[in-house]
Records
---
Amino acid sequence: MADVGFAEPDVWFAGLPGVVAAAGALITDPAGRVLLVKPNYRELWSIPGGICEFGEPPHAGAAREVTEEIGLPLAIGRLLALDWSQPYGPQARPIVHFVFDGGQIANGESITIQESELAGYTFAAADQLQVHLPPRALARIAGAMRALASGTTVFVPHEISPPG
């Protein structure tokens, strides 16, 4: 029998396709409005969160990003929504977005935004989210809100066709 010659794990893993993991938290106020943050490096808003560090579990990444962005060490709850998107470009890696339950905060008085990345924050009612969020994020957050209300988890894939 011939020797198969298995690849070393580091070599095998290095050859696999890559994916970017992003994680955030759906945080609401007692009226059910969603906490949004305004990044200073793009036009539209998002929920608190960001890209996970190399090897960082998504729930830990969400907790770290929330603490960094709004200054509150909130308990990160269950997974509400999972979203997959393929950006444009031949070298663009897909992004998997994890949205966790960030709980409820009474008001924004205790929020301290990360001024190096954020220009502000607001609480937005469900019928106002489309004013602040890009379409892909709106679908993701709307799905997370449905999951929060129903006790489920949703998958919200976004397949993007290249321009042209």
Note: Strands lie at 20-28, 34-39, 49-51, 79-85, 95-104, 118-124, 154-155.
---
Amino acid sequence: MSEWIEIGRVDDIPRRGARVVKTPEGEIAVFRTGDDRIFALDNRCPHKDGPLAEGIVFDHRVACPLHNWRIELESGEAVAPDEGCVRTYPVEVVDGVIRLSLVQAAA
């Protein structure tokens, strides 16, 4: 059973931007890429817990604002030579509305 919640419209997030969804388990960063794809990750870098939603989004990656670690939005994996991973969450877009599942997709 997945718990889908509507978190807003795609147009509510600027291209190459993010918004934060607060949950009882912590913050989830929801990203919109330049090609309008939507991704969701824990809002903390695996390096020093930097707020990923405040980072720079490019291609399908985000650069952490603290130490410039690059994180793949699809997998949550840090880009080499850095190592680490953040949890990802399933998202879907239905008629322009973003739906987020609170069930973690990967660790």
Note: The beta strands are 4-9, 17-23, 26-32, 38-42, 56-58, 61-63, 70-72, 88-89, 91-94, 97-101.
